[in-house]
């Protein structure tokens, strides 16, 4: 069977990750070892856009969050210039990428002509700055489309019907509701748009010099695609906006080629003219590839700007929470995912308030406070949360009778504040308890065989210890926390191989039996506790998790969005 040996000697595979706060690159050689990496941080390296955390927040509506589209264009140029001294672009045989999911770009009428005739003597920025019908791209952090979500759900027969059809009920950040809002509130922008891209297909479009298709995996994050047929759903399109299908173009499998790299990059950066651009996909699907997640009992937890939990399954069983997407590297499989908006930025907020703005102090607090935190439970929403759908706010409770094994005996009372060390443990334990509660409710494995942790906070051993204690399973980490750009580079190699073979080949044949010799292997970070006291602790965490889910349900009934 075709495998890693089929990759050309001396060839390079470029993976890019256009995320909320930065654009990253990871380069793999034909042995699947990382040979170069680079990053452009939007806030610090492109300060003229004046973004905070890569985004703009509407001062008139704190639910409305977006980014300047053109910033991503300029970031691509800056990144390639930074990579130039590190690698020979002529040796790159395939490039693929990852985009923050759900974000959308609106190309204005006539822009395809501009895109397909880029002049290599001029910057991308100067040529594409007027190519968009709106200069702002709605993002996954936006929660201003609650009204549009309900309208779309009602039009197709309810939230569960939409979930069964598209893999998810309507979520504010999903692209369909965002498109509907633009159609309703800025009809001129919608009318003047000839193509709507996701962040992933937008970046791929620049690289091929033509509109790239949306891939089937990222396309499932729009509330527009029939999850079983992997085609646009007529009823979802009609519920969203008129004439939408023509603006979306066709869907394509994630492993297929979007085309050859545009002459612009051949002339300006000396890429080989035969370099393939493999379909880009979303950041979480790329992480799934980069983590080589291929066993149904495994779970991955990504601790980044957003926190996500995902796994794989052979059948789609959508429900009212969580998401089902096609597996980007296994045409007949699916990935299941839960997403939290309050991730690293909310943890940083607690660090800044309670731990002298220092991760060292934060970790020392985490180490010196006991597991279970004396029954202190916290809910921390610096931004409007996705899961559960709760507004900005902080809620703290003390749970009593935790030593009693029956959860009926647990009594909670709301409190105003915790001392700083307890606050630190409460934000970590609270998120992990919520993840465990929701993954079990969503039908993900309980306990998982193992958890693979990725994202910035996965390098924090104190946090990983809590993950292992709360889930009751071993926690593994990968060599690089930026699994999305690594996954994109691996998918570039996989797509190149599928293209060379003329049909799909399993991605595992690239690394089977050789994982530890590549940059893809994972290592045990925290083992599962197997002593009696560990089992007792897990039992208590199970009670605390149920209590937390009960309090959460009451909060949603009282102040939730849906």
From TrEMBL:
Residues 299-496 form the Carbohydrate kinase FGGY C-terminal domain. The keyword Kinase applies. InterPro entries: ATPase_NBD, Carb_kinase_FGGY, D-XK_euk, FGGY_C, FGGY_N. GO terms for molecular function: ATP binding; D-xylulokinase activity. It catalyses: D-xylulose + ATP = D-xylulose 5-phosphate + ADP + H(+). One of its GO terms (biological process) is D-xylose metabolic process. Keywords: ATP-binding, Carbohydrate metabolism, Kinase, Nucleotide-binding, Transferase, Xylose metabolism. Mediates 1-deoxy-D-xylulose (DX) phosphorylation in the cytoplasm prior to the translocation of 1-deoxy-D-xylulose 5-phosphate into plastids. Can also phosphorylate D-xylulose (Xyl). Uses preferentially ATP as cosubstrate. Belongs to the FGGY kinase family. This is Xylulose kinase.
């Amino acid at each position: 069977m075709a495998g890693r040996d089929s990759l050309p000697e001396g060839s390079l595979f470029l993976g890019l990750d256009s995320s909320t706060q930065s654009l990253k690159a990871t380069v793999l050689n034909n042995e699947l070892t990382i040979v170069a990496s680079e990053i452009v941080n939007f806030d610090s390296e492109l300060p003229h856009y004046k973004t905070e955390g890569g985004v703009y927040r509407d001062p008139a509506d704190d639910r409305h969050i977006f980014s300047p589209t053109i910033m991503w264009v300029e970031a691509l140029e800056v990144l390639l210039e930074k990579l130039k001294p590190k690698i020979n672009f002529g040796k790159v045989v395939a490039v693929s990428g990852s985009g923050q999911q759900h974000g959308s770009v609106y190309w204005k009428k006539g822009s395809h002509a501009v895109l397909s005739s880029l002049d290599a003597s001029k910057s991308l920025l100067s040529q594409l700055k007027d190519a968009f019908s709106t200069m702002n791209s709605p993002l996954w952090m936006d929660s201003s489309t609650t009204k549009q979500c309900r309208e779309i759900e009602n039009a197709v027969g309810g939230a569960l019907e939409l979930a069964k059809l598209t893999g998810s009920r309507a979520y504010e950040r999903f692209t369909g509701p965002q498109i509907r809002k633009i159609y309703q509130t800025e009809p001129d922008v919608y009318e003047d748009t000839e193509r709507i891209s996701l962040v992933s297909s937008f970046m791929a479009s620049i690289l091929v010099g033509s509109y790239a298709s949306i891939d089937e995996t990222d396309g499932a994050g729009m509330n527009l695609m029939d999850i079983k047929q992997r085609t646009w759903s007529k009823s979802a399109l009609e519920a969203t906006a008129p004439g939408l299908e023509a603006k979306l173009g066709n869907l394509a499998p994630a492993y297929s080629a979007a085309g050859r790299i545009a002459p612009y990059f051949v002339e300006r950066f000396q890429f080989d003219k035969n370099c393939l651009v493999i379909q880009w996909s979303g950041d979480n699907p790329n992480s799934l590839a980069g983590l080589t997640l291929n066993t149904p009992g495994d779970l991955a937890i990504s601790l980044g700007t957003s926190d996500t939990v995902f796994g794989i399954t052979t059948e789609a069983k959508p429900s009212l929470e969580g998401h089902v997407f096609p597996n980007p590297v296994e045409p007949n499989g699916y990935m299941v995912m839960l997403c939290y908006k309050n991730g690293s930025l909310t943890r940083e907020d607690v660090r800044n308030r309670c731990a002298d703005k220092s991760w060292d102090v934060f970790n020392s607090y985490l180490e010196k406070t006991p597991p279970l935190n004396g029954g202190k439970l916290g809910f921390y929403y610096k931004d409007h949360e996705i899961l559960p759908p709760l507004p900005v706010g902080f809620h703290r409770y003390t749970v009593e009778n935790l030593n009693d094994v029956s959860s009926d005996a647990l009594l909670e009372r709301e409190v105003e504040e915790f001392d700083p060390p307890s606050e630190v443990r409460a934000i970590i334990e609270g998120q992990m308890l919520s993840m465990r509660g929701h993954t079990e409710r969503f039908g993900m494995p309980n306990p998982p065989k193992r958890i693979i942790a990725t994202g910035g906070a996965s390098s924090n051993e104190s946090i990983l210890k809590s993950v292992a204690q709360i889930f009751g399973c071993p926690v593994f980490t990968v060599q690089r926390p930026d699994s999305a750009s690594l996954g994109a580079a691996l998918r570039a190699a996989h797509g190149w191989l599928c293209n060379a073979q003329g049909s799909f080949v399993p991605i595992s044949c690239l690394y089977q039996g050789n994982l530890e010799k590549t940059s893809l292997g994972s290592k045990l970070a925290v083992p599962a506790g197997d002593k009696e006291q560990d089992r007792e602790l897990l039992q208590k965490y199970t009670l605390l998790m149920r209590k937390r889910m009960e309090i959460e349900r009451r909060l949603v009934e009282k102040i939730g969005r849906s």
